[in-house]
Request: fold
Amino acid sequence: MPDLSQIVKAYDVRGVVPDQWDEPLAELFGAAFVQVTGADAIVTGHDMRPSSPGLSRAFARGAAARGVDVTEIGLCSTDELYFASGQLGLPGAMFTASHNPAQYNGIKMCRAGASPVGADTGLAEIRALVEEWAESGAPEPAAGPGTISGRDVLAEYGAHLRSLVDLSTMRHLKVVVDAGNGMGGHTVPTVFEGLPVDLVPMYFELDGTFPNHEANPLDPKNITDLQAKVRETGADIGIAFDGDADRCFVVDENGDPVSPSAITALVAARELAKHGGGTVIHNCITSWSVPEVVKENGGTPVRTRVGHSFIKAEMARTGAIFGGEHSAHYYFRDFWNADTGMLAALHVLAALGGQQGPLSQLVAEYDRYAASGEINSTVEDQAGRAAAVRAAYEGRQDVELDELDGLTVTAADWWFNLRPSNTEPLLRLNVEARDTATVAKVRDEVLSIVRA
Reply:
């Protein structure tokens, strides 16, 4: 019996292949997915990992055996699968483990219109069915099996993204893109088609073994090649995508990283101008600059927990036009409330190309504070250490505490957030302040308690 508690996470399925899950299990997931969604047709796609085509086809077989028609779009990025789900009006399943190492794979599932399937929105029921069938045998096939057919939506996806951003006034730019041997190597040439861009591609060869570096640009060591190439070629901007190309990271003309909070603020200002105002969602560890910029541009900021299911739920509830996270996930109402790093990248290119200054100068107005970045501490007793930090600050008159997500402590000149990891014995600390000395002081203060 497979231990599904190890692979069914809050938002997706993720585990080592074939140790934790394999094609027969993928087939059961396909059958369970169509039963829970009530679909009579679905769309599937997969990334470049060696195990992805087999797992994706097994899922399709499981769905078709239940009488459901399956459209396979084949190799794609996660946001391309969301596009297909939205455009075709079908539930979808994307086979990817995003930035995880090569031996991992997973499934990101959504209902029609790219609406997420998570623990509270169907994933728990899917897991229960798969567990039941793994023990008692696969469900009875439908009287008439569904069909499995292929469709290429890459050109439609690229055209749709370009239609959402005014790229008409862009000057010519030299752009380095590091695809990390992930799906950006497949999608970028089509999405950038016709743009006034001198593209310098890095690691565009699709290779799910990730021979050059991990496809996780959130880790600074994985963007050093991009930074060097930007400096070497005199490029205007560098962009890195993660393995399934749904997150985008930016470096400026000097090779310096631009914080995802600054990108969130920049894109928010552009979306507010486009829509004539509106609500913008940001999670509780994005910079102070995000709500400031939103208000300055006539918008309403709404703060929420970390994680795409919370962001998407708030976007649906409030009718928000845009949402951003510190992890470089960017969500757009014009894209079915789904996240697409590629659309965020087009916004940054349009903003940079629509004026004459360098990127460092453009983003300076959106990057107003000093920050620690995310600092992880391995602790055996997450709750106990977090409680100790809370106890150290709760009696103070100069701070406010809230527990929207973990513990956030806010003072006049600084704030920090301390959150437990859902999957590892870690506490994650983020600190922001008006200057670097204060960041260092608060960081060291908190870490001395966490690591005591």
Remarks:
- The chain has a mean pLDDT of 97.
